[in-house]
Design goal:
This protein is α/β, with parallel strands linked by helices and 248 residues long. Helices cover 36% and strands 17% of the residues. The longest helix has 21 residues. It binds uridine-5'-diphosphate and magnesium ion.
């Protein structure tokens, strides 16, 4: 059992969370690209893989990857709990001042963290906007509709909340509530917090070259539309408390 109090990520400035669910055919390339990035990341960086109950060989492969690198760590779930849960676990177990997120399918590149990190001190969240999207028509259209509706409902003004390349100040990230679909509301959830601001930066996008997408029209479009109502409720009820004094 790992300790939720602190761990090796505290020795780094930046922890990159990589959610992994049945991605065995991506792990070799993932190890190489992440390791290349670690060599010239502009912050001292470590990797935290979160295996979300994979049923293929992903977890065994991650064990060997983490044995080879002193700056790569993993957590594994007992059973599949979804991308939002994997991200939340990564945030709960990260103790570096900054946390980031990238998908295991490398549709964005870790190289582009170096485009986001220069803004990480000024903004609670720095998030990518995928340029030249390399997804199929159905995915691009459903994503456009979902983004438009979410912007109207949340007023978050975010162009591409689904972009799998993000950097957050860990203190802000740890206050984000967990619910299924949370990963699509990160800018809106950051804005709820006192002092919560975000910046968007264009990043590169690539086709998925191995493994399969876990999302389809229903969970990409209708789930997030319904969650907009939950967000509006949460916005009305959200509490930011301020500590005046303590001897803790
Ligand atoms: N993922 C996960 N748990 C799930 C579904 C997906 O951890 O239940 C991971 C998956 O391995 C990938 C990321 O979340 O790293 C995004 O998934 P995917 O690429 O299938 O989504 P898409 O890019 O098609 O929206
Ligand atoms: Mg993907």
């Amino acid at each position: 059992m790992v300790s939720p109090e602190s761990n090796h990520t505290a020795e780094f400035e930046f922890t990159v969370i990589v959610p992994v669910f049945n991605e065995q055919d991506n792990i070799v390339r993932l190890e190489k690209e992440l390791n290349d990035f670690l060599g010239h990341a502009i912050m001292r960086t470590c990797i935290l893989f979160v295996d979300d109950g994979s049923k293929d060989h992903s977890l065994e492969l991650l064990h060997t990857v983490c044995e080879r690198h002193r700056d790569m760590f993993y957590l594994s779930f007992r059973r599949n709990a979804g991308l939002s849960a994997a991200l939340k676990a990564g945030i709960d177990y990260a103790f570096s001042p900054w946390v980031g997120y990238i998908d295991a399918d490398l549709q964005t590149t870790p190289e582009d963290f170096n485009l986001l990190l220069p803004y990480a001190s000024q903004y609670a969240l720095v998030t990518g906007i995928r340029t030249g999207r390399k997804d199929g028509l159905v995915k691009r259209i459903s994503s456009k509709i979902a983004n438009g509706f979410r912007r109207m409902m949340t007023h978050d003004d975010a162009v591409d909340t689904g972009c799998p390349l993000k950097v957050m100040q860990t203190a802000f990230a740890k206050r984000i509530p967990l619910f299924t679909g949370m990963h699509r509301f990160l800018p809106a959830l950051i804005l709820l917090q006192e002092g919560g601001n975000y910046k968007q930066c264009p990043v590169h996008h690539f086709p998925r070259t191995a493994g399969q997408s876990k999302y389809h029209l229903w969970n990409r479009l209708l789930g997030p539309l319904r969650d907009c109502f939950a967000y509006r409720w949460m916005k009305k009820r959200y509490i930011n408390y301020q500590i005046a004094d303590s001897n803790i």
